[in-house]
Amino acid sequence: GQSLEQPSEVTAVEGAIVQINCTYQTSGFYGLSWYQQHDGGAPTFLSYNALDGLEETGRFSSFLSRSDSYGYLLLQELQMKDSASYFCAVVGNYGQNFVFGPGTRLSVLP
Amino acid sequence: NAGVTQTPKFQVLKTGQSMTLQCAQDMNHEYMSWYRQDPGMGLRLIHYSVGAGITDQGEVPNGYNVSRSTTEDFPLRLLSAAPSQTSVYFCASRARDVAGPYNEQFFGPGTRLTVL
Question: Cβ of A48 and B104 within 8 Å?
Fold first, then answer.
């Protein structure tokens, strides 16, 4: 089976940096994805890591360590609009299916 | 491009009723999936398809059927609705990822289903 763990809530102030961790246990691993979801909205893709290391996309970066079964999403220069839920997802079964984590609710305060 | 579309946006059913949630995509994506999301929780995979005529079960398939007769459409059928199926249902699609690392799923706006 597969299971993922994330912190349930994180709070930070505008302009700060926040890191959201994700640990996983899986029987098959192809990569780790991150998605953002605003209240009432659909998830939207942020990043994907297939190899160890850091991937940077603007203010967002994502890191993966396959040996530690661990990844994180780093959000820099936080803005109010970053208040949302963030989900990590293990891509398994040769890229055919996804298992999502329970999500981390990020609140950005002024 | 409309992307991924879902109908209806909202639906109320009585226990035992059946219905079909529609999902369509115009991006020529081979992979399509159905998820359910319960309040305060992550998404759980119901069924997925890797191409027309090919479907497989996800994490929570009981009580749901799917078929994939065309690349564009991937309907989800609730056979006999139960209150435990009250949830938000998301359809998603993505291109087949053969050699590259890119693995973005595009989600529809969701269907909010209540079963009384």
Answer: yes
Those residues whose C-beta lies under 8 Å from the C-beta of residue B7, and which sit 6 or more positions away, are: B21, B22, B111
Distance between CA atoms of residues A10 and A4, nearest Å: 17
Chain B CB within 8 Å of residue A51 CB: yes
User: Which residue from B minimizes the CA distance to A2?
Assistant: B59
> What's the pLDDT at A52?
95
Q: How far is CA A59 from CA A16, A85, A104, B89, B99, in A?
A: 11, 17, 18, 30, 27
Residue A70 at interface with chain B, using a CB cutoff of 8 Å: no
**B67-99: pLDDT as tens digits:** 999 999 999 999 999 999 999 999 999 887 654
Are A102 and B105 inside 8 Å of each other by CB?
Answer: no
Distance (Å, whole) CA B17 – CA B93: 27
Residue B98, token pair as written in the block: 């053969």
Pick from B47, B103, B107 the residue to mutate for testing the A interface (most A CBs within 10 Å). B103
Q: What is the CA radius of gyration of chain B?
A: 14
Q: Indicate the pLDDT class of residue A95, thresholds 50, 70 and 90.
A: low
Candidates A12, A32, A22; CA nearest to A75 is A12
